[in-house]
Amino acid sequence: MKNKKFKIYGVIIFIAVLVFIGAAVGVQTGYLDGFDDAVRYRVYSIRNEKLTMFWKFITHSGDSEIVIMLGIVLLLVKSLRNKYGVKFAIAALSSTALYQGMKYIFQRPRPDIALRLIEESGYSFPSGHSMNCLVSYGILAYLILKYCENARLAKIFSVGLGLIIILIGLSRVYVGVHFPTDVIGGWSLGIAVLVAMMYAFEKFDGRCENLCMMKG
């Protein structure tokens, strides 16, 4: 049963990496420029004061400061440290290192500054907010489902985190700091990292359980 589960993980990672490569090639060759422009200008056309307030709030909920603060809390609270804090920190740091490396490799400029509703620096592809939030909030949802004794509450939290992940990605296009393909690239690479982390943590936990049984 476990082998089948890990094979499914492998298939998901493979597909996610293929999508990322496809997005990267499309960005580098300019093949997806028409798609990017069609989507983002349609999004810009629906901007209004109320929507802008909402999407700014959403996009800032994915800021690195928020992720760092959440990680610190999970690490400082002793009862949460081993089950949540350490794994959350490993996932978030790994994701950050990877997307920063990818940004440096592709060096895609962000959309024109005149179209941005917030200040943002650095390169555009892939979207760091989209990727890091998918990995960080995604691993948190996974851990909640695994360790929270209240199954109903765990599902509610996980669905909420999933919704936030999607909204944060969409917000990056609305506020004008990313192209749609940046978000697709961030999500696809994020899925690959998230599933790889889940695989690694399950392997590690399994070995720990085996060691404990042997000692017992």
Commentary on this structure:
The chain is mostly helical. The protein has eight helices and no strands. It is globular and about 50 Å long.
Number of helices, where a helix is a run of at least 4 consecutive DSSP H or I residues: 8
Helix-strand makeup class: mainly alpha
Low-pLDDT regions: none
Strand content: under 5%
Question: Any chance you could write out the topology, listing elements then pairs?
Answer:
Elements: H1 2-29, H2 33-44, H3 49-60, H4 64-76, H5 78-106, H6 128-147, H7 151-174, H8 180-215
Helix pairs in contact: 1-8, 3-7, 4-5, 5-6, 5-8, 6-7, 6-8, 7-8
Question: What would a concise description of this structure say?
Answer:
The chain is mainly alpha-helical and 216 residues long. Helices cover 81% and strands 0% of the residues. The chain has helices spanning 2-29, 33-44, 49-60, 64-76, 78-106, 128-147, 151-174, 180-215.
What distinguishing features does this structure have?
216 residues, mainly alpha, 8 helices
